[in-house]
Amino acid sequence: MPKSKESEDTSCSTEASSTELTSCNQENSSNKTSTAIEDFVQEEDSNNFGAFGFSEVLLKTLANKGYKEPTPIQKAAIPELMLGRDLVGQAQTGTGKTAAFALPIIEKLNKPGGPPQVLVLTPTRELAIQVAESFRSYAIDQPNLKILSVYGGADFRAQINSLKRGVAIVVGTPGRVMDHLRQGTINKTELNCLVLDEADEMLRMGFIDDVEWVLEQLPNERQMILFSATMPSEIRRISKQYLNEPAEITIKATKQKTNLIRQRHIIVQNSYKIDALKRVLEAISEEGVIIFTRTKAITITVAERLEASGYNVAVLNGDVPQNQRERTIERLRKGIIDILVATDVAARGLDVDRIGLVINFDMPFDKEAYIHRIGRTGRAGRSGEAILFANPRERSFISNLERAVGQPIEKMNIPDNETINKNRLLKLQKNLIKAATNGREHEEETLVLKTLIENIENELKIDQNDIALAAISLALGPSPLMIQEDEGWIKQANQRTYRNDRRDDRSRNRRRSSFDNVSTESNMERFRVEVGYRDKVKPGNLVGAIANETGLKGRMIGRIQIFESHSFIDLPKEMPKDIFNNLKRVKVMNRELQINRSV
Ligand code: AMP
Questions:
Q1: Is the domain of 74 the same as that of 124?
Q2: How far, in Å, from the CA of 87 to the mean position of ligand 1?
Q3: I want to staple 199 with a disulfide (CB 3.0 to 4.6 A). Which of 32, 150, 228, 360 is the partner?
Q4: What is the per-residue pLDDT across 161-177, written as a single tens digit (0 to 9) for each?
Q5: 532 and 468 both lie in a single domain
Q6: 358: closest CA among 423, 300, 277?
């Protein structure tokens, strides 16, 4: 967008790093301030959102959300965006980048509905939903402000109807946005701001042609904002070609604090994972637990099995509608449910203080996913525990994760009967102590109960210990307190781990892990899918579908060759069987992939 009057008045350089931008702003503001009191107010303001000139209503929303201070990316980006400048931001998820662009956008809207004024492009359906939800949460006190997410696979008609009624901000994936622009259902005449979120991911997923097509459609007078975790040359080119003297901000990814989290791993064969999981939950009693799985299908299987064992469980995956996801998180926060089984995408940004334990039921796809997963515990300065399940073939990944977190991920055995029984007793003891200390909520009943105990004592001629025992037994119900299950498989699994450990010690220095280099040829395997040119498939369609189903990042998907009726695609080796089977039925361009290993 051409620079506004205000920005022309500033003497800041147009291409500055984040620190330069900050000092630039301070310089300008210090020209205006003179007295010590004003300086003090200025300094106070720079710690909160008041300094950005936001409206009272937005400041109130932020206060209600508990946002006390802008994050570094917000401090650097918001003043620039409020001035109407274009902006290139290099920042990752978790830095607060969504609010960095969403807040100034909301503040600068001309009207709450009508033809769209803002278009945000995201690489995936999940991110589109998440970003739209963030916008909605920032506009919660402005109910007339309409925000819509549009993505493939969702009902076209409903999207068109919403657009007809008037939507100020549209967040969508490139393909669906193109469809709407082509058929005129997104009216582009009043679009004055475009955001490309996670631009590098769009590039990796093969959407960059589509993104450029969208860029070409937009009016010349517009503000453009580009966020990307990395800056490959293609993204730089786009930024040079389409952005007008953008402010450039780089926020280095800060190493997440994982040192408050005790991290352990268990080696277990896939077929015993659920049993091992139940044993871990029995042995470690934490109030809130998140279990991460790779696919939506596994979230359901795990949740069902746990529910059948009497646990209070909920599922969080891409199929769960957004409003229900929020309700689920709220229930977890309040302690109505104790265990959440989630996919990585669905649990993005999940922030609940009472999570004491994170279980990586399936190996995460990369280091970032692991760090994000375990970061769901140890919140608000508390300590937390993280346990990683790895099957014998995944053992080699563990040392790479250890390097990524700079901390050992200790070995742990599958808890045996003795460990579980000790914990059951301990838990019972804790609960009894709590009940004895707190007394009954309805105090008036205490006297009645005491009389009851005396009556039983007199009637049966037994002492109070026996009555206490009877009461505990009644509370416990008929199932035995101590488990005596067959432990053969546990001993076998734990011994196998021991044997493998010795072998690994010998080969540790020789072994090259595949985790860091997952994209190199030797770690990839070639697959054939039964979709080709005849179906008008493009690489982006394949990458998108596979990334959505498997959770693989676009960059982990290798070479793609498309032929008339089939295609070849390189994917990381050792794809789990369940993912492989699910992929077979995934439809791209209306045809099942029917994926097979290429021979
Ligand atoms: P993002 O990087 O946009 O995915 O944001 C990561 C998380 O940080 C989200 O859960 C936001 O709600 C939260 N967040 C963003 N800005 C702030 C802030 N200034 N203070 C507290 N939390 C924030």
A1: yes
A2: 19
A3: 228
A4: 999 999 999 999 999 99
A5: no
A6: 277
